[in-house]
Amino acid sequence: MAKIYYYSIYADKIQEYVRLKHKLGYQFKKQEYHLKQLDRFASLRGETSVGFTKAFSDDWEIKKNHETERNRYIRVSILLHFSSYLRDIGYESYLPKLPAYKRSTYMPYIFSKIQIEALYKAADELRAGRNTSMNTCIMAIPAILRILASTGIRIGEVINIKISDIIHEDQCLKICDVKNGKERLIPISKNLLNVIESYKKFRNLLPEKNIQSEYLFIKLDGRRCTANGIRRWFSKSVQMAKIRESNPGHTPRVHDLRHSFAVNSLASMVADGIDLYVSLPILSNYMGHQNIQATEYYVRLTKNMFPDLSDSLDSTCIDIFPKFKNYE
């Protein structure tokens, strides 16, 4: 990515803010783009002192032609967070209200444990057709689906796993977070480690020239598996397992395995009496969330999927997730 330069009165402060975010492990690429626009906006207005005014904020909040409500929301949130940073380092700066916008009402498909087992069975029974080329990842699908469902990692993370990322002595996998660029170690069960080792035995039966890749999951021709290839075989497995749509047109997606892992893990911990103050940070770190607020989404899903646990969830979440406060 090309280096971004800032020229307004806020240039030094923006650079300090971006460096801070990078040190905290954020990639921050999209945010830097919006900060560049904010810097340009401040330059055009001829701002001469650090600290945003309400007038500046009101002008920045004006919806652009053909701009979506979501993009406007992101722009204002960038100003809000940067302005909050300025206040933290001693400047008077106005904090705008976040504009309302219609959020997606999409509900992910949550697989039951029975459905997950049926999906595994279907993946094990996948067979390549007579005309199937070497450009297929069918051999890796049973192991990939088990990893996705058992760990909740993202599809982009599973295809990036390298053979060297398997740490046998600690029984864990090193995962490179595709969203935030941070590495994390996740513990896995002995059974899942055995699944990986079984796959590697079949992998090593491929021609020598095809197994030189550093990546764990490869196609028959030796190239790394792709997300699209995994999605196709996942859809085939769902059909074979006769897993029905929860709503018309609501077909289960690969990413729903991640949602299912989070919801089922949270439900199990609550049912076992594990305090959410303990379990939520663990789940948040395991899944690679930047903060615990990102995990709140799964608390809501769990309440919808397991209404019997609603009271237990409510009693803790009152304190963990306080209502958002707008600042004038």
Can you give a write-up of this model?
The chain has 328 residues and is mainly alpha-helical. The chain has three domains: 11-88; 113-240, hpI Integrase, Chain A (Orthogonal Bundle); 256-320. 49% of the residues lie in helices and 4% in strands. The protein is built from 13 helices and three strands. A three-stranded antiparallel beta sheet has the order 1-2-3, with no helix packed on it. α6 runs antiparallel to α8 (190-203), α6 packs across α10 (256-271) and α10 packs across α12. Mean pLDDT is 85; it is low at 315-328. Belongs to the 'phage' integrase family.
Number of strands: 3
Low-pLDDT parts are 315-328
**Strand numbers in spatial order across the main sheet:** 1-2-3
Compute the CA-based radius of gyration: 24 Å
Broad shape: elongated
What's the pLDDT, averaged over the residues? 85
CATH fold topology of the largest domain? hpI Integrase, Chain A
Return the CATH architecture of the largest domain. Orthogonal Bundle
Summarize the structure.
Helix content is 49%, strand content 4%. With 328 residues, the chain is mainly alpha-helical. It folds into three domains: 11-88; 113-240, Intergrase catalytic core (hpI Integrase, Chain A); 256-320.
